[in-house]
UniProtKB/TrEMBL annotation:
This is Zn(2)-C6 fungal-type domain-containing protein. Keywords: Nucleus. The keyword NADP does not apply. It comes from Elasticomyces elasticus. Residues 112-122 have a biased composition (Acidic residues). Residues 111-166, 622-655 are annotated as: Disordered.
Amino acid sequence: MATPLNAESIHGRKATRSCLECRQRKVKCIWPDDADACRPCLERRRTCIPQVVALRDNHPGRITSRDRIAKLESTVAQLTQIVRRLEDNASTPGTYTVSDKYALTSRVNAAPDDEQGSESDSSDLSPINPPTHLRQLFEDGPLDFSDHNPMQSAAHAKQHTSGSRLHRANTALRQYMPSREDVATISAHAAPWLMITRALFVMPFGANAEAELLPLWDQVQNYDAHPAAIAVLLLSFVMSLQQIPVNEIPELSKGPRQGVSYIRQVSDAIEATIVMNDSVAGTMEGLEASLLWLRLQLVQTRIQKVWVCLRRVIALAELIGLPRAVQQQLPSDTSTTAPTPLPWQRDRSKRAAELWMAICSIDKLAGMMFNLPQSTIFPNLVREPVVNGLVNHQAYLSRLSDIASGIQDVDNQHARGLPPPELCEKVLRIDGQLRTLAGSLPPGWWQSDTRTLSPDQVIGFFHQYITIRSHVHLALKNQDSNQFMYSDLVCTEACRDLARRYAVLRGLLPTGFFACRIIDLQALTAAIFLLIKQHNPGNDVANTNLNGRSESSTSLVEEVVKTMDAGSQTVAGRFARESAQAIRSVAALLNSRDASGQHSLSLQVPLLGRIDVRRKARGLVAPSIPQDDKPAPSWKQLSNGPHAQAEAVDPLSHDGEDQSWFMEISSMPPFLSSYGEGGMVAESWLQWEGLD
C-alpha cells in the first residue's frame, strides 16, 4: 500500500517528481492530481518514496580531509623527533636498510629555519688558497693583511655548525662505530691491501699501515670529532673487512659480523652524510673521506656512478683552491720577493698539495682503466720512475697514465675514419713512449716471476695492457696482409704475456682490491684477441717463435678462464664470471665445425652489456686497406728498441685448415674502446652481494 507523503517530503524533493522506485526501475513516474503516490507504485502496491534533497549541515560532526592530513603530519613530526632523540642516545649500531639511505640524506641535509638563514648569509667556500687577484687588492699598494689561522678559528666554525649538519652527520655515523676489539681483530688482515695501495697510490690520509687503525679509532672517540674523521676510520675498517672471505670472517660484534650487509650500510651512510653533503665534502677533511669512499666503490659499484662522483670531488677541490696549493710547492724563482709563509700556512699548503696529488692520481688511474678523459692538472712533482736502479711505482704509474691518455686520441681518429697509415704514426709515437719507459727499468725486471704479491706485478700488468690498447686497431686490420705486421707482433706478444701475468696476479691480489674488476676486464681483452688470432690461418705473422716459449694460445686462454672461475667466487667477481662465460662462448663458436650448428650467440660483456656475435663469410668482412703514398713502417725498421729485444712473439697454435668465416667484429672492438654505443646505459647497477 502506498505510503502518503507529508508536506515536508514533497517540499524536500523540489523540482523532481520521480520516486525512488520508478528511478530504480527506469520507468516514467506519473503523478495523478492531488495524489500522495505515483501511478506505477499504486499499481504495483509499492511504497512510493520521493527523492529528497539532503541539506548541508551547518554544524558538521565529522573531520574534513584537510584536518585529517594536518593531524597526520603533526603525528609524524612528533615521531620523527622521538626517533632522533633515541638515535642521539644510542650507543650500539641500529638497524639500517638500503631504503633508509634517502631518508638519511634528507635528515642530514635538512636544517632548521634559523640555521638555514645563517648558512645562506655566510660564504659557501672555504678556500685553502684564495684567488690571487682578490688578495692583490689588499696586499699591494698602501694596504696589507694577514690570514687568520684556521686552527684558531676552528672553535668559531664549530660553534656555527655544531648544531646543524656536522652534528647530525656525526650522530648518523656513530651508529656504525666498531668496537676497539673489532678494530684490533680486523687490522691483522689489513696488511696486504694497504701494502699494495700505499706503494701504487698517494695516500696522505687515512691508515697507511695496519698499526695505525687503533690510534685512528682512539682519535675519533671524542664526541666532538669531525664526521670526516669518523668516516675515514669506518672506510679503513670496512675496506680491511672486505679483504676477508665470507667464510673466514672472525668473531665480531653484531654490526660488523654481518659482513657485506654492514659494508653496504656504512657506504650508504657515508655517501649521505659526507659525499653528498656540500658543507662537509667541500673541506679538506671531507675530500679525504670522499676519496677513500671512491676506492671502496670501485670494487662493486656502477662505473658511471664512480666517474660522476669523482668529477664532483674534483670540482669541490678546485673550488677551495687545491691546485693553487700545488703551485706553491713548485721551486720558485729566487729573484722574486715573495712573502715568507707562516709555519701553519706551510703545513696546510703541503697537506692541500698532497691531497690534490691524490685526487690527480685517482683521476689518472680511472681514466686509464675506463678510457675516459682526464680533467685534472698535475704538475710534475713526482720523481723519475727509476732512480739508482729502484723503481718508484707511483711515478711509473703516473707516467703510464699520461701515455694512456694519448690512446683516446687514437680511438677518436679511428672512429672518424682516419686512414690506417696516418693512424700508424700516432700508434708508433705512443709505442716509442712505452719503449722509453720500459727501457728505464733495471735489467731483468720484466723476467721476474715471483709467487708473492708485489707492486712490480701490477705495474707490469698495466704496462702490457696499455701496449695492447695502443696496437689493437692496426693488429686487427692485419688479417690478410702484413702491412701492419709490427703492431700485430707486438699486440700478440703483449696479450700472451698479459695472460701469463694474469694467471699469477689474480690469485695473489686481496679479494676486495678495488682494481680486481678492471684486471678481469683487461684479461678478457687479451683472451678474445688471442682467440681471434688463433682462428685466422691466413695470417702467418703471429706464428714466429722468437723467445723460445712453447705454450700455445689455447693453453693460455684456458688458464685465464680457470683463473676467472676462481675469481668469480670473491666479492668483486661479477666481471670475472661474465668474462669467463664470454670467452667460453666465443671459443665454442670459433671451434664449431657443424654447418648446421649455432652460428650466432648472445654475450654479456662487462661494461658493454649484451651483444650479438655471429660468424660471417670471410670475404664479406675483409676490408681493403687504402694504400697511401707513404708506406707503413716495417718490422725491420722497428725491431731494434729495448722493448722489442725483451719481448718477442710466440707461435700461435691452429689447425691450419682453411675456414671461410671468422667472427664478425669491428676493427675497434667496443670492449677495447670507451664503452661502445650505449655501453654505459646498458650496464646495470652492480648490487652488493655476499658472493658477487
